[in-house]
Design brief:
The protein is mainly β. It has a single domain, classed as Lipocalin. The chain is built from three helices and 18 strands. It has helices at residues 10-17, 108-111, 115-120, and strands spanning 33-38, 43-48, 53-56, 59-62, 64-66, 72-78, 85-92, 97-104, 129-137, 146-147, 154-159, 165-170, 175-182, 189-200, 203-210, 215-222, 227-235, 243-257. The strands form two sheets. Strands 4-3-2-1-9-8-7-6-5 form a nine-stranded antiparallel β-sheet, with no helix packed on it. It has an eight-stranded antiparallel beta barrel with strand order 11-12-13-14-15-16-17-18. Strand 1 and strand 2 form a beta hairpin. It is globular and about 55 Å long. It starts with 9 loop residues before the first helix and ends in a 6-residue tail after the last strand. The relative contact order is 0.20. This is Molybdenum cofactor biosynthesis protein F. It comes from Serratia oryzae. Residues 146-257 form the MoaF C-terminal domain. Residues 6-107 form the Molybdenum cofactor biosynthesis protein F N-terminal domain.
């Protein structure tokens, strides 16, 4: 009988994903300026200084940007105003809208609060926080992105590298199941909180929040090009002092789709 699989820190996961990863090339957005006009009324001006730094308002940060389709930008950086937080911007420059994912990892006392205590206190099982905010680019009149149920029922295979393969099952509006078929987490599986946004036809923003090892995943799933690109945020180790915010990308395959009969 094989030994039981053990959950690992996100830093160790990043090391496993790194060799020959199927991530997209970094986009050089030097000189680009965008106004992010949030639906709630706030506007943040963003200027890309070069291929690795931008100014988010008055704050200068390092960023990663990719383009999974023409006109679609995935921009990610650590939140300069929020400890253990990140901001991910998914921009559709053709439609003129965007989704912003504000994520924050829990601190050590929050992580060490056990699941039963969280239930007793009426708290979510995951202590990873996420806020989805929608808006328009440069004062456009575009429709805002919307939450979607179009992924629900799909069972998909994602190959992140020659050594790392995962299966996802999108169960319902709030939860998905995952298992590692090959790689550093082989044999591990869980059901975690998630969110789905429709970006364009057959293009989805998928966000998940894990409850055992504090982890935030933000990924674009392109079911036309059958690939994904995004990031995973967590702690480098178990001392909660250093973040690991690393790129991920995969080749995608739909294994099957479940449609339940009406009750």
């Amino acid at each position: 009988m094989s030994s039981e699989a053990v959950f690992i820190q996100v830093g160790a996961l990043a090391e496993g994903f790194a060799p020959h990863s199927h991530t997209l090339e970094q986009q050089d957005l030097a000189g680009l300026e965008l106004a992010f006009c949030f639906a709630a009324g706030e506007t943040v001006n963003c200027r890309f200084n070069d291929d690795h730094t931008l100014c988010w308002g008055a704050l200068r940060v390092d960023y990663r940007a990719t383009s999974i389709r023409p006109g679609i930008l995935f921009i990610d950086f650590l939140d300069p105003q929020c400890a253990n937080g990140s901001i991910t911007l998914v921009c559709d420059r053709q439609q003129g809208n965007f989704t912003a994912v504000y994520g924050q990892l829990p601190d050590e006392p929050q992580v060490r609060l056990d699941a039963f205590s969280r239930v007793e206190q009426g708290l979510p099982l995951t202590a990873v926080n996420v806020q989805l905010r929608f808006g328009r680019l440069d004062q456009s009149a575009a429709a805002l992105p919307q939450l979607t149920d179009e992924l629900i029922g799909m069972r998909n295979l994602y190959t992140y590298s020659p050594t790392e393969r995962y299966e996802h099952i999108y169960l319902n509006d709030n939860f998905y199941a995952w298992q590692c078929l090959d790689g550093v987490e082989q044999g591990l599986a869980d059901v975690d909180r998630c969110h789905y946004v429709k970006v364009a036809e057959k293009l989805y923003l998928f966000v998940w929040r894990e409850k055992i090892v504090p982890t935030l995943g933000v990924v674009l799933i392109d079911l036309q090009g059958m690939r994904t690109d995004g990031k995973i945020l967590g702690y480098q180790g178990s001392d909660f002092n250093v973040l690991s915010n690393f790129a991920v990308g995969a080749h995608a395959q739909i294994l099957n789709i479940t449609r339940y009969p009406l009750a």
